[in-house]
Design a protein that fits this description.
The protein has 354 residues and is α+β, with helices and mostly antiparallel strands. It is 58% helix and 15% strand. The strands form three sheets. A five-stranded antiparallel beta sheet has the order 6-5-4-3-7. A three-stranded antiparallel beta sheet has the order 8-10-9, covered by helices on one side.
Length: 354
């Protein structure tokens, strides 16, 4: 027993060994309390909030769990440090960790309510604006947390920024494009130029919008390339939004053989117009079907009309259906489609000489 006491009184860095042992036991006790907190209090809390009609309290509880788990470790380190007589420095450490836990909770809270916020904005304004505000809020929380953390360490952030001098000016100039992209993103969302999933064309870039960020917009091209465009570029460009149209245009020509009589052409035109006017997926205004040109090797019929759908696959199905019906009409009326050809005529004007 005497030997154990002597060992416990042995000093390391001017601190008796028993204090290290006591500090370690205190830290283990806090880890044990953390486990109890998870298994009992959190479990009981989930049962209680699960009985309510709203899920708001569930989300708040879920946002609290990880920061609270983290604080048990922090307080364990704090008490252990007080036992080791290094509490002057550990107070700053503890405050810093509490700041981190607080902003961690706020960040998780925003993340938990993200779906609700996006759902609310999709009903009232635009889902993309909701996404923009959620991202901006997250960035704001992180920035504010960093500032609070540095201030707690004794760093005067405002004075530090002011002391940058020319470096700060250079930073501001470098951030000019970023600011322009942020305002560009805001303009895209408020003007409702497009939303995620829309088929758009900006300059030479064409594809489907995958993400509208605070600085850039990501577009998936039809060859599956991912193209990232600065928001400022989009805001200052002409944007074609093909998804906003409610119809697709069909412009086509067919050529009939030159042996087709005028009466036959009239019947083909009449039956084709009737077929298109009675088609359930074709708009009847505008609808043009005319014999308008004499081509080199055919009598050309011109078609100009619109489908009642903007869906690409349905549009192709409608075109296929129309093409087959036109083929039936042409065949039924005894005509046929022309193909590029040339006729060569020989004149027998050779003189016979004696």
């Amino acid at each position: 027993m005497k030997e154990l006491i002597e060992i416990m009184n042995y000093t390391i860095l001017s601190t008796p060994l028993y204090k290290f042992a006591l500090a370690f036991l205190v830290f283990i006790m806090f880890l044990f309390m953390r486990k109890i907190f998870t298994l009992t209090i959190v479990k009981t809390g989930k049962i209680l909030v699960g009985k309510t009609k709203t899920d708001i309290d569930d989300k708040i509880l879920d946002s609290l769990i990880k920061p609270m788990d983290f604080l048990f470790i922090v307080f364990g380190i704090h008490i252990a440090s007080m036992i080791l007589k290094i509490d002057d420095k550990v107070i700053i450490f503890t405050k810093s960790m509490i700041i981190i836990a607080f902003f961690w909770f706020l960040f998780d809270l925003v993340k938990s309510f993200e779906d609700k916020i996006l759902h609310l904005f999709s009903k009232k304004v635009s889902r993309e604006i909701g996404m923009f505000l959620v991202k901006a809020t997250k960035v704001f929380i992180i920035t504010l947390g960093i500032v609070a953390f540095l201030q707690n360490l004794g760093i005067n952030v405002s004075a530090f920024i002011a002391s940058l001098g020319l470096g700060g000016l250079a930073f501001a100039l470098a951030a000019k494009d970023t600011a322009a992209n942020l305002f560009g993103g805001f303009a895209i969302l408020t003007d409702n130029m497009f939303k995620i999933g829309d088929w758009i064309k900006v300059g030479n870039v064409e594809g489907t919008v995958e993400d509208i960020g605070m600085r850039t917009t990501k577009i998936r091209a039809f060859d599956k390339r991912l193209i990232t465009l600065p928001n400022a570029t989009i805001a200052n460009s002409a944007v074609d939004n093909f998804s906003r149209r409610d119809r697709r245009r069909i412009v086509a020509r067919i050529g009939l053989v030159y042996s087709t009589t005028p009466a036959t052409i009239n019947r083909i035109l009449k039956e084709t117009r009737e077929m298109l006017q009675n088609h359930p997926l074709i708009h009847d205004d505008p609808l043009f079907v005319y014999f308008d040109e004499f081509d080199d090797s055919s009598l050309s019929l011109f078609f100009y009309l619109f489908t009642k759908t903007a869906d690409w696959e349905k549009y192709l199905q409608i075109r296929e259906d129309i093409n087959l019906k036109i083929m039936d009409i042409v065949e039924k009326n005894g005509s046929s489609f022309a193909f590029p050809s040339q006729s060569i005529y020989f004149e027998n004007d050779l003189e016979v000489k004696n």
